Automatic annotation (TrEMBL):
Keyword Hydrolase on entry: yes
Source species: Acuticoccus mangrovi
Domain CN hydrolase per the UniProt entry, residue ranges: 10-255
Alphabetical keyword list: Hydrolase
The protein's name in its UniProt record: Nitrilase family protein
GO molecular function, one term: hydrolase activity, acting on carbon-nitrogen (but not peptide) bonds, in linear amides
Length: 280
């Protein structure tokens, strides 16, 4: 892909809300309202939660099949692509993708010119394994006017290889649609383990990371909010967001600053210092 890179400074928004299971039309209407508001606040890149159009806690394959669709031709995907084109922004959203007789917990990237590309979640969490096929598209990085964008979904963030692979492929910002749930044994009053993992990934790879979580309780499953936008040094630029209420985070990124941040001092660079002769 070719790039028509701008100056590298722009605003990223992470939209945290509570999708309603099965209410495709209602969720898309909510998404449109919140994305328009983020755009009005100056966001050029907007990230939505995992499975934002459909909800998450499915009871049957039949229920999921009725809410899934092809990407980018399906109802939800086409709506999201059209919204990005109308507003002239880049948009990343989780989505249930139907393809080749399977359903994937997926994400799409759209821009002012239309659909750019997709991603299928590699690491499935808990009951997702009952309904979704494992991702088979690898970890693509898309070269856009906003920089090189990678995508991960929720549990993918528990694996350091996810972000290292994306960074090695040139990613500058990774968008993470997610539905974080409480971790076993964690004090609910402490910051989410997910935030710790993504701070470490941003720091050790020199990446911007934008995590858009959901809130609410769906069929007995609580979600923990705390969406987060991180700089390439690992420190938060916005968030963590509220634990139980909808909230949109907005932060400015500077893609041109990444290389300076990766050069920690005169002698150390977070990529160049890797001992590839030792690692297997």
């Amino acid at each position: 892909m070719t790039s028509d890179r701008g100056p590298g400074r722009y605003k990223v928004a992470c939209v945290q809300f509570a999708p309603v299971i099965g209410d495709l039309d209602g969720n898309l209407a909510t998404i449109a309202t919140k994305v328009r508001a983020a755009h009005a606040a100056g966001a050029s890149l907007v990230v939505l939660p995992e499975l934002a159009p459909s909800g998450y806690v499915f009871e049957s394959d039949e229920e999921l099949a009725a809410l899934a669709g092809p990407v980018p031709e399906g109802k939800a995907a086409a709506f999201l692509v059209a919204l990005a084109m109308e507003l002239g922004i880049h948009l990343v959203s989780g989505i249930a993708e139907a393809a080749n007789g399977r359903v994937y917990n997926a994400a799409l990237l759209a821009g002012p010119g239309g659909f750019i590309g997709g991603y299928r979640k590699l690491h499935l969490w808990d009951r997702e394994t009952l309904f979704f096929a494992p991702g088979d598209l690898g970890l693509p990085v898309y070269d856009t006017p906003l920089g090189k964008i990678g995508i991960a979904v929720c549990y993918d963030g528990w694996f350091p290889e996810t972000f290292r692979t994306l960074a090695d492929a040139g990613a500058e910002i990774v968008c993470v649609p997610t539905n974080w749930v409480p971790m076993p044994s964690q004090d609910p009053d402490t910051e989410a383990m997910a935030n710790t993992l993504h701070k470490a990934a941003a720091h050790s790879n020199g990446l911007y990371i934008a995590c858009a979580d959901r809130v609410g309780v769906e069929r007995g499953q609580p979600f923990i909010g705390q969406s987060l936008i991180l700089g390439p040094n690992g420190w938060p630029l916005a968030g963590p967001a509220h634990r139980s209420e909808p909230e949109t985070l907005i932060a400015e990124v500077d893609i041109g600053a990444i290389e300076r941040v990766r050069q920690i001092n005169a002698h150390n660079h977070v990529h160049a210092d890797r001992r590839r002769d030792v690692y297997r």
